[in-house]
UniProtKB/TrEMBL annotation:
Positions of the 3H domain: 76-172
One annotated GO molecular function: metal ion binding
Binding positions for Ni(2+) per the UniProt entry: H80, E88, H147, H149
Cross-referenced Pfam families: 3H, HTH_11
Protein name per its UniProtKB record: Transcription repressor NadR
Metal-binding found in the keyword field: yes
All copies of domain Helix-turn-helix type, residue ranges: 9-62
Keywords, ordered alphabetically: Metal-binding, Nickel
PANTHER family, alphabetized: TRANSCRIPTION REPRESSOR NIAR-RELATED
Gene3D superfamilies: 3H domain (3.30.1340.20), Winged helix-like DNA-binding domain superfamily/Winged helix DNA-binding domain (1.10.10.10)
Length: 173
């Protein structure tokens, strides 16, 4: 397989991301272009520096298309341990909620946000497995488990029901 060079590779990556209905992993992009994953990371950085709205999620890269989202969006404050992350996220996605991101308020760096875009149990299981296999620290580990999530749902009722269940489980702050 021929290695695809610089500008041509970045052009292909951008088109693939724009056309994709789901995230594309760095490894998949590296395989398609016959370069290392590190080269893809650098390419993504260059594309983002050129004002392309590319976001990195636990599932891979996505192109942040402008959407006409007409549902409900809210930020919730929660606290839990690493062992409870699957329970918290599953409660949310089981109520038809998309967990858009996680936000922590760091005492030195201020607000730190990471994209999640978890929509279903499969996404949650993949995310939790990646946490376990990499041994990575959750952002909320920086704030003793306290963090915020931006969440989206089609209706406010879905959000209200999920919040009630989170409260009963002891996750709400």
């Amino acid at each position: 397989m021929k290695k695809i060079l610089g500008d041509e590779r970045r052009h292909l990556i951008l088109n693939w991301l724009k056309e994709a209905d789901s995230p594309i992993s760095g490894n998949q992009l590296a395989s398609r272009t016959n370069v290392s994953r590190q080269v893809i990371v650098q390419d993504i950085s260059l594309l983002k520096a050129g004002n392309e709205p590319i976001m990195a999620t636990p599932q891979g890269y996505i192109y942040a298309k402008e959407t006409s989202f007409s549902g409900e969006r809210r930020v919730i404050a929660v606290k839990h341990t690493k062992e409870q992350i699957a329970e918290e996220l599953t409660i949310l996605v089981d109520h038809g909620i998309t967990v858009v991101d996680v936000i922590v308020d760091h005492p030195i760096y201020g607000e730190i946000t990471a994209s999640l875009h978890l929509k279903n149990r499969f996404d949650v299981e993949k995310f939790v497995k990646k946490l376990q296999t990499t041994g990575a620290t959750m952002l909320s580990g920086l704030t003793d488990g306290t963090h915020l999530h931006t969440i989206e749902a089609d209706t406010s009722e879905q959000i209200e029901q999920a919040i009630q269940v989170l409260g009963k489980a002891g996750f709400l702050i």
